[in-house]
Amino acid sequence: MSLDGALDRRKDTHSATLTGAGNGNGNGALTTAIPSYSTHRLRLNPNTDHKPDSYEDLQLEFSPLLFSSLEHYLPPTLLNVSRESKVQYMREILLRYSPEGERTRVHGLQARHASLNKFSELHLLVISPAKQFLIDLLSILTGSEAQRIPTEDYIKLPGVDVSNSVLKINSLTDFLQLVLGGEPLHRELYTMHAANFFVPSFLKAVNECTEESFRSIMTEPSPGVFAFEMLQPHFCELLLAEVENFEKWVHETKFRIMRPNTMNKHGAVLDDFGLETMLDKLMEDFVRPMSRVFFPEVGGSTLDSHHGFVVEYGLDRDVDLGFHVDDSEVTINVCLGKQFSGGELFFRGIRCEKHVNTETQSEEIFDYSHVPGRAVLHRGRHRHGARATTSGHRINLLLWCRSSVFRELRKYQKDFSSWCGECQREKKERQRLSITTTKLELLKREGEAAKEAAS
Ligand SMILES: O=C(O)CCC(=O)C(=O)O
Ligand SMILES: [Fe+2]
């Protein structure tokens, strides 16, 4: 692999749109022919600036408010088409939620039995930006007024005992998963059970939470790269099965998911299928304590958001990964399995934005071989890539952790010599020059003084 070319800045695609499958380019053809559902797309994040039409005057089988609400989620190209086209498009999507034969009328609205049963036991904590849409959709599905409890952002369903179960909905994807029947396979993964997830040595080190305790379980084979045993084999198996299950569901429902970032064609964003809360805990309670100790100068103690995903390599998947820096302050990369050869990570020194393409010094060259269950912790700005996985399948869990404080402060700084290898070298060079100049100046003065004394 060549490292000569310009290095990539990996960006996640997480904030981009969630799209349905098919070509669905959403043009005006919709007025004359109603394509099958598979061509209908919704955005994951609503366009909040869009002013929706009113549908109050139309005789529709769904609440007019639902159509207005759903409009925010239409693909951009559809926002300005005629109201009739939008209605057709949105009806098609809504009808999908209440397929023929499963439909019933509750309080004059359509509801889907299966969903109704599911929801009747649930207290939904909705964290999604799609909140209002979900509330409207819930009203449709349950046939009664779903209520938002503003202080907690819960949705309460009338006549439902909410004390026993709480289900978090983080995203529209979560919701679709629930409604369309894409149930999680291993629910125990969705809340943090540290004793089941991590190996005892890792738990002990985090509990003690000192540099000494961390170093006792880690190696630092190259400055700023820490490797340690972290995940239990059973947890890796469950997570692999969960990812497989999710991908099967995606395939069956023909949803096209967003890939983890700009450089992968395979893999999945774990946050998008309900693991966001668990991964947030992983960042807060496990990654941040380590980063506070090892990476304080890049916001390690103030990590406050994450992007969590899996990457999948093999000859029939992504094969390798080009030279890049992550869009993170701190990255934790844990190998989940399975059997593979190749796939080594190569590291080439830490750089700030200005120096990202500067030369590598020999002492910055380091290669790391992945081992299932083992984690690598490094700064996001540590330049790296992954060599080809030459046989089998390699699946890794990645958590890119970010600090908004660090990102804000960075805007006002120019010198990053506390972490950037090149800034450090430049600073040392400046110091060396200034010492030499001072020495020369002193010598000159001594010479002059000697001359004066002699004359
Ligand atoms: O394949 C790997 O282990 C590296 C993945 C990586 O660097 C990334 O996803 O940012
Ligand atoms: Fe990376």
Automatic annotation (TrEMBL):
Named cofactor requirement(s): L-ascorbate
Gene Ontology molecular function: any one: dioxygenase activity
Keywords, alphabetical: Dioxygenase, Iron, Metal-binding, Oxidoreductase, Vitamin C
Region described as Disordered: 1-31
The Fe2OG dioxygenase domain, residue ranges: 304-403
InterPro entries on file: Oxoglu/Fe-dep_dioxygenase_dom (IPR005123), Pro_4_hyd_alph (IPR006620)
Highest taxon in the source lineage: Eukaryota
PROSITE patterns for this protein: FE2OG_OXY
Extent of Basic and acidic residues compositional bias: 1-14
Protein name: Fe2OG dioxygenase domain-containing protein
Lineage of origin: Eukaryota, Viridiplantae, Streptophyta, Embryophyta, Tracheophyta
